[in-house]
Amino acid sequence: MNRSFSSPPLLQVQHLGRRFALPRAGLFQSPGALQALSDVSFTLHAGKNLGVVGESGSGKSTLARLVMALDQPTAGQVLFKGEDVHRASGQGLRQLRRGFQMVFQDPYGSLDPRQKVLAIVTEPLQTLRTAVDGRSEMRELAAQALDEVGLRTADLDKYPHEFSGGQRQRIAIARALITRPALIVADEPVSALDVSVQAQVLNLMMDLQDRYGLSYLLVSHDLAVVNLMCHDVLVLQSGSVVEQGPAEQIFRRAEHPYTRTLLAAVPGQASIGLTQETP
Questions:
Q1: How many Cα neighbours within 13 Å face the side chain of 107?
Q2: Residue 216 and residue 67: Cα distance in Å, rounded?
Q3: 192 pLDDT band (50/70/90 cuts)?
Q4: Helix or strand or coil: residue 113?
Q5: β-strand partners of 51
Q6: Strands ordered across the beta sheet of 232-237
Q7: Which residues lie closer than 8 Å to 271 by C-beta, 6 or more apart?
Q8: Per-residue pLDDT reduced to its tens digit, 252-277
Q9: Distance (Å) of CA 49 to CA 74, 162, 183, 233, 241
Q10: Cα–Cα distance between 158 and 178 in angstroms, integer?
């Protein structure tokens, strides 16, 4: 994972903001607004992981959607390898999207129950109009992606309901891997899974990072997961960054009262925040 940082960072978020208009509270009142994100900035280098933490409503998922260009910011920029993802369109955006993919929280809701695994895993290739030489190559690529997450080629012909929650999340990871991205945005990727399955999926994600030099932008309320996976941490409160820095510094010597409150609320936080070394 040791790389030169002479080239542009993999991901740069600069003064990012997102404001949502609210409906009028009354006939003669002006419409309100919700500032979901305000002046958020960070840099993520290739091969590194950044954990984004905060309470529900802190802006974590809004940030993830803006990084993925699934929503438009009202201020700031998201630069992927130096290119502004929100200024790109058409073929330019499709080309950029090959480099970043997303894994969602709910392995039950993020997979179309009407589609077989083959269609689910190859969906990014079709959506991004990736040149593939016929159905046989498409199936070969999908089989390779499944193998990388510990599933079988025969699983391509099954439906999501035939799998456990952990297996479904492996399918979601295979779908993200098939374009060979440099960045995976993972929004609470294990929070819907049993504890024993969580460990399996996290180990898989770390193995894939070692194999392919992936970077993860990991959105999570689980500080133990962030401490295990991430090199750096960004703490959001009400849409604003209150603290950011190396994971070891945040977990061992948190400065902001909000961060210390988050750490204190974790059962057994001393074992995750004060004794375990970060990767």
A1: 28
A2: 12
A3: confident
A4: coil
A5: 218, 233
A6: 100-103, 183-187, 215-219, 49-53, 232-237, 240-246
A7: none
A8: 999 999 999 999 887 654 444 433 33
A9: 26, 32, 9, 9, 17
A10: 18
